[in-house]
Amino acid sequence: MSGSDNPYGGGTYGGQMTGSAQFGGAAQAAAPAGGYIKDTSTAAFAADVIDESRRQPVLVDFWAPWCGPCKQLTPVLEKVVNEAQGRVKLVKLNIDDHPAIPGQMGIQSIPAVVAFVDGRPVDGFMGAVPETQLRQFIDKVAGPAGSDQAAEIEAALGEADGLLANGDVQTAAQLYGAVLQADPENAKAAAGMMRCLIELGDIARASQMLQSLPPELAGDPAVQAVAKKLEQFEEARKLGDPAALEHQLSLDPDDHAARMKLAKIRNAEGKREEAAEHLLMIMRKDREFEEDGARRQLLEFFEAWGAKDPATIAARRRMSSILFS
Asked: Active-site residue 70, yes or no?
């Protein structure tokens, strides 16, 4: 999926789109205003309509340039879809350029609008209908505005968190971006998008997004946790070359200062178990180093990782055995 085709995106902060990331080597940018509407083709129909309709309802507008009623319907349909704020997406197919799909679906008169949900057509209408009828049609296929949005957002965030935890950064970022489209001030989604950027190694973009958040979002605990992680990356960047530190430890395993630096770097790289191991090794050998600095650093890691993180649980158990042995 190219950046221009990406139907997902984050909110806008500081006058620029902030929900972009690198997926499979291609830049994925947040959808601009009007990102709920796109043109499609025979080749792209499956991705733009079938696959996308599994995330939210997709309306397909079958039209042609010579069709007078199409010219009446299209601007009103686009207006209503944009006002729906992501409850539905609109995909337009020029039947002159791409006759195969309408032929397969038996479209014999245009304009024709067909609603797809969960990968299949569920409803539709023909002709240039009035705006009130268009709104009723969207409510019918997507549910009344605001009825289940909060629950849907929470479900999407939960799913995105799970995907990110399992390493599916691309899909997680798409879900966080979809939430930010529906609710640009959602702190959990903003934090999630920044976490995806961090996982992808785009620290600069994550920092840029953090700096552009409004104060009420920047102070949210979820965002603050990301800010702490970014601080750790910045600190790790200043600590030196990890390969050089590894070499130094091979020469002198008791160089606790080098080991402490390496622990911070490994944590910033996401290698939590390795980071904890270095700190636990310092604790076993010298509890007095930097006034019990290894233990204090490990506690900071626990706070950043979260109490339920497997690395926290395992390292806390081992730390207890050192402290109370």
From this structure: yes
Catalytic residue among 67, 73, 95, 282: 67
Q: Is 196 a catalytic residue?
A: no
List alpha helices for 20-91, DSSP H.
45, 68-83
| Contacting residues for 38 by C-beta, under 8 A, at least 6 apart | 5, 7, 48, 89, 90, 91, 92
Please tell me which residue in 70, 194, 222, 260 is annotated as part of the active site.
70
Share of the chain above pLDDT 90, in %: 47
pLDDT of residue 325: 67
Closest CA to 45 of 86, 108, 103, 85: 103
Max Cα separation, the chain?
84
Could you identify the residue written with the tokens 């959990």? 188
Residues of the chain with pLDDT under 50: 1-34
The pLDDT score that the predictor gives to residue 316 is: 92
pLDDT of 2 reads 29
pLDDT (0 to 100) of residue 44: 94
Written as six digits, the tokens of 7 are 């139907």
The answer to whether 185 and 219 have CB atoms below 8 angstroms apart is no
User: Read out DSSP for 179-229?
Assistant: HHHH-TT-HHHHHHHHHHHHHTT-HHHHHHHHHHS-HHHHTSHHHHHHHHH
pLDDT in tens, 49-81: 999 998 889 999 999 999 999 999 999 999 999
Single out the residue of 156, 185, 150, 155 nearest to residue 173, CA to CA.
Answer: 156
- Give CA angle at 222 (19, 36), nearest 5°: 30
Whole-number CA gyration radius for the chain: 26
| Positive or negative torsion for Cα 99, 102, 107, 110 | negative
